[in-house]
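Note to self: keep these together.
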Amino acid sequence: MAIIDGKQISTDIKNEVKKEVIELLDKGIQPCLAVILVGENPASQVYVRNKKRACEYCGIKSLSYELPESTSEEELLALIDSLNLDPDCNGILVQLPLPKHIDEDKVLLRIKPEKDVDGFHPYNVGLLSIGKAQLKACTPAGCIELIKRSGVDITGKKCVVVGRSNIVGKPVGMLLLAENGTVITCHSKTKDLAEVCRQADILVAAIGKPKFITGDMVSDGVVVIDVGINRMDDGKLCGDVDFESVEPKASHITPVPGGVGPMTIAMLMQNCLIACKKQKAM
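Structure:
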């Protein structure tokens, strides 16, 4: 059994990005990411801080826009428009969730697809569905990297994804399919969920229910990627997988924290580099 070290793998990816950024800097080009935060959500503030830190580590310039809760939708859209037009800004990220008076869909649609480093724009989701995306949703792309960099070949494997959200469940299913996995997507209406999960060679859990996947729901030798992040009453973090009961049966498993979490930001850095190179036609 191997615990997949998301921190180490994410550091490896950031180091690869850093190396390429140094080569770009030698040509007078610096990738640049704009991060927009509206309001005072403490979790969002932590995420934004971590993204800034990762930019600094990789040599990517970061522009930070921390706007008050009272910012109107029009003001936010105007800021996105100006960043869309700025040739020095390669990626635009709007930290979700947004305050209730702002339409998230309208905001995400406003970002130019080539600057959509989150991979949420319907244009990029469409490219993902036909296997041609360059800017892939960060968390699902991170899941695939964790599997591949752990020496697991996805080709021909039965892959069960528990969860069908637009942010993780659906895109991770499409990415597994692109790697020649045989994919089943499960959700709250799936019959005999435990039986379906037991068929999995690779199981991705992304439902937001603490310790939902238990040891009796998996087969020996399964590869488990736990996307969930839930805070327990005692303040500790746990995933959607009951680590204690599943870990003895798994050949590879991600812990929470320290598994998928660090990968999301590493893949964001990679997307920012890809966006920059594409915009500069390199």
